[in-house]
Amino acid sequence: MSGSEAAHQIAESMRATAEGFCKAFVAGSSPTEMLDTFFASDCRITEHGPLWAQTRLPFLGTTFCGRRSQGNENTSSGTTCDDYYDILASILCFHPTQDTVPPKEEFRVAVDKSAKGEWHGAVTIKLHAKFESVKTGKSWEEDFIYLLSDFDHDMKIGCLELWADPLSAWMAVDD
User: Fold this and answer.
1) Among 17, 21, 61, 91, whose CB has the most other CB atoms within 10 angstroms?
2) Is 66 left (phi over 0), alpha (psi -120 to 50) or beta?
3) How far apart are CA 155 and CA 73, in angstroms?
């Protein structure tokens, strides 16, 4: 298999994992099920945002690492990937539509080969949905970005980074 064929095959595998994860998220799969199915055991999740917003949105600006269920040393610290979803769900509700996830052809995939001959890549996806504050019931619609990277040899996601609209969330959760 040529280098370009291998790169194409890896890119399509990463795209398939990304699509499966996005569809499971939109379908309302539990965080445990999504993490078990689509993420590596040493996964990381970071939702980027200003540190000042952490008083109302404590999931912002923190990198959550590993899994609660796998003997992770972060289990009691509240910083596992399971904890990210627990914290998020305690603050915001997610209301997807049929257009939340774009067609897989719109997923942007980048793949390259390191000097050691290992393949690396990332998938970027622009999504759209309605969110609602659990506390106030205030809602808003927004576009948000997923960057999935550090795929392992089984094509499980090693790192999920998110960029969303923290100001809208900040305003919605305020009484």
Assistant:
1) 21
2) left
3) 24
